[in-house]
């Protein structure tokens, strides 16, 4: 709903036992009794506005009973809300429940991505164990790394996992100013065909972005006359990015299940900053393993890591 639809009032829900009330996909409260009233003040709703004037309110019920919602200035009892004299005076305004399938679509896509990443990691031999994850940071902590190059199958499976997790993160948290972030709202995903069309759009865009980035790494490595830089960079990029892919996958799946209540803006900022952190760790790992002047290496990483990370932050934070 829009900010203007509140008319300066709050919203009070009457929900059945076991129903969960969400604001912007964030679980706020679960009813522990029948006909429980749950009230959100106008100030609280204003603080949770998305894109300055939009608010998503969702009530999930376990028994299919349709909840009621009223615009009110403070919390009333259930008996007061349902009294005929109140309804006759129209002090309580019933708000039609918007039946959106978008949340179910996101949960479905999160499950698909989780299963696909699990299968692809097994096919490509991508390691997910605790020791393997810690070993990925050897280039940062010890200045040395496993020099084994990726084979074609590993690279392909890694790219598939990266793109799938990236598409899930975009659909959940994308809220920047560029065109790609405009297709992850419930208004543009009313049907499954719309949803998968937008997913395909994001997947193709991420693929082109990654392909262009790898090409820049290869070209700049040749320009600087040190192919060892691009080789080590590729290995460190794969290892550290794979750790972040697993972390983001875990985070996104948890988010769709809503087991915790964390600000949506905090999550966007956290993921955006994580892109910069990963690029900085890759820079340190490569810096410790190559013999190249600082200004050359810094210029190289500005084009191959820092600028792409800035673009990613632009997508998420805006």
From TrEMBL:
This is DUF4271 domain-containing protein. The chain crosses the membrane at residues 106-125, 155-174, 195-220, 240-257, 269-286, 298-317. InterPro entries: DUF4271. It holds the Pfam family DUF4271. Signal peptide: none annotated. The keyword Transmembrane applies. Keywords: Membrane, Transmembrane, Transmembrane helix. It comes from the Bacteria.
């Amino acid at each position: 709903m829009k900010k203007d639809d509140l008319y300066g009032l709050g919203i009070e829900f009457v929900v059945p036992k076991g129903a969960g009330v969400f604001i912007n996909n964030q679980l706020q409260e679960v009813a522990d009794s029948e006909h429980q009233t749950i009230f959100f003040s106008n100030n609280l709703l204003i603080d949770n506005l998305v894109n300055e004037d939009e608010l998503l309110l969702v009530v999930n019920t376990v028994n299919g009973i349709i909840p009621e919602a009223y615009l009110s200035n403070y919390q009333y009892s259930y008996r007061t809300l349902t009294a005929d004299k109140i309804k006759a005076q129209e002090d309580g305004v019933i708000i039609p429940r918007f039946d959106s399938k978008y949340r179910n679509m996101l949960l479905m896509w999160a499950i698909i991505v989780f299963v696909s990443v699990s299968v692809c990691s097994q096919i490509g031999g991508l390691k997910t164990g605790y020791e393997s994850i810690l070993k990925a940071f050897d280039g940062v902590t010890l200045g040395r790394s496993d020099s084994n190059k990726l084979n074609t199958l590993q690279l392909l499976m890694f790219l598939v996992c990266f793109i799938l997790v990236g598409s899930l993160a975009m659909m959940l948290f994308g809220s920047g100013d560029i065109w790609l972030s405009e297709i992850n709202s419930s208004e543009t995903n009313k049907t499954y065909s719309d949803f998968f069309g937008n997913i395909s759009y994001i997947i193709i865009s991420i693929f082109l972005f990654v392909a262009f980035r790898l090409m820049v790494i290869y070209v700049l490595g040749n320009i600087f006359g040190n192919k060892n830089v691009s080789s080590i960079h590729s290995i460190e990029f794969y290892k550290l990015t794979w750790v972040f892919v697993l972390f983001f996958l875990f985070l996104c799946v948890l988010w769709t299940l809503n087991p915790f209540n964390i600000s949506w803006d905090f999550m966007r900022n956290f993921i955006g900053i994580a892109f910069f952190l990963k690029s900085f760790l890759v820079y340190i790992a490569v810096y410790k393993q190559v013999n190249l002047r600082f200004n050359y290496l810094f210029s190289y990483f500005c084009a191959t890591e820092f600028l792409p990370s800035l673009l990613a932050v632009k997508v998420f934070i805006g």
